[in-house]
Write a structure and sequence with these properties.
Blueprint: E1 8-11, H1 17-28, E2 32-36, H2 50-61, E3 65-69, H3 76-90, E4 95-98, H4 113-141, E5 144-149, H5 152-155, H6 162-182, E6 187-195, H7 199-202, H8 209-219, H9 227-234, E7 245-249, E8 252-255, H10 273-284, H11 294-297
Parallel strand pairs: 1-2, 1-4, 2-3, 4-5, 5-6, 6-7
Antiparallel strand pairs: 7-8
Helix pairs in contact: 1-9, 3-4, 4-6
Protein name: SDR family oxidoreductase
InterPro entries: KR_dom (IPR057326), NAD(P)-bd_dom_sf (IPR036291), Peroxisomal_Beta-Oxidation (IPR051687), Sc_DH/Rdtase_CS (IPR020904), SDR_fam (IPR002347)
Domain Ketoreductase: 7-200
Length: 303
């Protein structure tokens, strides 16, 4: 008996990369899986029906149960069809894994409105659309797990990813509010920031030695390392785990902190711009966040 025996899980962006590994492990753990993939390229173009069907066939050959859904998560009706397929094919929905996404990296001064909208639409609006569609079922049955994929590009920062970073940080806020709002109904919501080689990572420019070394390090991080945490969060083993941010980096699992006040100063007669400059900033400057990128914070090689 797997930890997801009798459960129904929907995985978006499950035709390749991380999503594929999530779908395969959830199926091995006993879940019936909706394999959603719109079949777009790494930058969000096209519509290839093959990847989702291939994963379904792979699951079936291993003795599992799965169904392909080709809808785009950016379309509210398409997102609803993912959940409806789960209920119609397998009778229920127990976990939603919001993994779908793509990159359109541009340095800030060259980023177009289309670059911004396309990335925010698939990552943030896609997570909203699928989560919203599953919510009535979760609420009625008094259980359910939302697992959203964030990124250290949002949590920490990275170059050339204002669209992606903004969407991924916003997903943390979305997950937090869902967790608080849905706790009374027994519904959980958590985030994972994955470190793994994927088509998206392969699109990142590597025009200097530091970036090339970073990408070489990422190639050693296989996508299957992310799947066990997802299976855990989708299962009853995680019934008391909600409103958290995790990361997986090869054989390392991290729990992230959330923004909380770290210093405060009171002035009985209030503040002026000058007194802020003269008193408050000198007092707290030692605690300022540094201008650091995700690759610089996670600078050691994983094993």
């Amino acid at each position: 008996m797997g930890i997801l025996e009798g459960r129904v899980v929907a995985v978006t962006g499950a035709g390749r990369g991380i999503g594929r590994e999530l779908a395969l492990l959830c199926a091995r753990e006993g879940a019936s899986v909706i394999v959603n993939d719109h079949g777009v390229s790494a930058n969000g173009e096209g519509n290839d029906q093959g990847p989702a069907s291939e994963v379904v066939n792979e699951i079936a050959k291993a003795g599992g149960t799965a169904h392909a859904n080709l809808a785009s998560v950016t379309d509210p009706a398409g997102a609803t069809s993912i959940v409806e397929d789960a209920v119609e094919k397998f009778g229920r929905i127990d976990a939603v894994i919001n993994n779908a996404g793509f990159l359109r990296d541009r340095i800030w001064h060259k980023m177009s409105l289309e670059d911004w909208r396309a990335v925010v639409d698939v990552h943030l609006n896609g997570a909203f659309n699928v989560s919203k569609a599953a919510t009535p079922y979760f609420r009625e049955q008094g259980s359910g797990s939302f697992i959203h994929f964030t990124s250290t590009s949002g949590l920490i920062g990275n170059l050339g990813q204002a669209n992606y970073s903004a969407a991924k940080m916003a997903i943390v806020g979305l997950s937090q509010s869902i967790a608080l709002d849905m706790q009374r109904f027994g519904v959980r919501s958590n985030c994972i920031a994955p470190f793994a080689w994927s088509r998206m990572i392969a699109t990142i420019p590597s025009d200097n030695p530091d970036e090339q070394k970073r990408l070489e390090r990422m190639q050693a991080m296989s996508a299957d390392k992310i799947a066990p945490l997802v299976a855990f969060l989708a299962s009853d083993l995680a019934k008391d785990v909600t409103n958290q941010i995790f990361a997986v980096r090869k054989n390392e699992i991290f729990l992230f902190s959330k923004p909380r006040p770290i210093r405060a100063m009171h002035r009985s007669d209030g503040w002026t711009a000058q007194s802020i400059a003269d008193e408050f900033i000198p007092a707290v400057r030692s605690d300022f966040a540094s201008m650091i990128r995700s690759p610089e914070l996670f600078s050691w090689d994983p094993v």
